[in-house]
Amino acid sequence: MRRVSVVVGLVLVGVLAIASTGCVSQKDYDTLLLRNREQDKLYQDKDMEVARLQERVEAMQARAGDVQVLLDGKDKALTEAARERDEVRKAFNELLEVYKRLAAGGGAAAIPEQVAIEIEQLAREYPNLFEFDRATGRLRFASDITFDSGSNVVKPEARTALAKLASILSSDMAKKIHATIIGHTDTDPVKKATTIALLKELGKTTNNMGLSNARAESVAEILKAGKVEAVRIITQGMGETQPIPGAGKDKNRRVEIFLAMGA
């Protein structure tokens, strides 16, 4: 702006000097004044352009600061996500070890003979619903018969059989037996909008792990309603991670109950 004022001042001085000598016509004088105004307008426009450029530079600097903040936040989020991933992986590996031990028959041999006999009788009563392996203490329920597709609501026949199982497990002879209920799925991903909405409502992950967990908990609720103490029940979902070797999808959609003696 100072340069503009100086230039404009010099032009005005020149105009006044010429006018004072009387050597130019009024027309020439008016022409000089017009040029002076045009030059002044040009410098004003340039100053405004410089001001706009300065504002853009300042805005870009501010955006650069915002981008850095976002990058810092992203790095923090990635670090936190990696930590949570490692924790989930560790927890799942621990769960997997527990499942392998249960599947190998950990503690099942100590189940009272009469309890095993009554569960075998119940399995014969519902041959298409579940099977009982005395050696491992495992009851394997066919999921398609126990649940509708994408649902965690236990079907009536399965509910009746589970209520009878609860009656056996709540008897005096079975008081020390603990039940670990594990849900499984096939490899088909969860796609139904109703299933996704259900899992969100239950606070579960909207995938096979969440669905298998929700189904295990539904089975547990029936046992609890049949007077089996909550402290004797553990639930967990394994999703599609533990398929039965050589079995089809229908066999892998299952819920397993492992019975073992507690302390």
Supply the key terms:
2 domains; 5-stranded mixed sheet; alpha+beta; disordered N terminus; rod-shaped; 60s Ribosomal Protein L30, Chain: A; 61% helix; single chain; 263 residues; 8 helices; 5 strands
Commentary on this structure:
The chain is an alpha+beta fold and 263 residues long. It contains eight helices and five strands. The chain has a five-stranded mixed beta sheet. A hairpin with a 4-residue loop joins strand 1 and strand 2. The N terminus is likely disordered.
Task: Indicate the topology.
Elements: H1 2-21, H2 26-103, H3 113-125, E1 130-133, E2 138-142, H4 143-146, H5 156-169, E3 177-183, H6 193-201, H7 208-225, E4 233-237, H8 249-252, E5 254-261
Parallel strand pairs: 3-4
Antiparallel strand pairs: 1-2, 2-5, 3-5
Helix pairs in contact: 1-2, 3-5, 5-7
Q: Main sheet, how many strands, which sense, barrel?
A: 5 strands, mixed
- The helix content, as a percent range, equals 55-70%
**Number of DSSP E strands:** 5
Q: Which superfamily, in CATH terms, is the homologous superfamily of the largest domain?
A: OmpA-like domain
CATH class value of the largest domain: Alpha Beta
Overall tally of domains: 2
What structural class do helix, strand and pairing data support?
Answer: alpha+beta
Measured between the Cα atoms of the first and last residue, the distance is 90 Å
In the sheet with the most strands, the strands line up as 1-2-5-3-4
Strand content: 5-15%
Give me the strand/helix succession: HHHEEHHEHHEHE
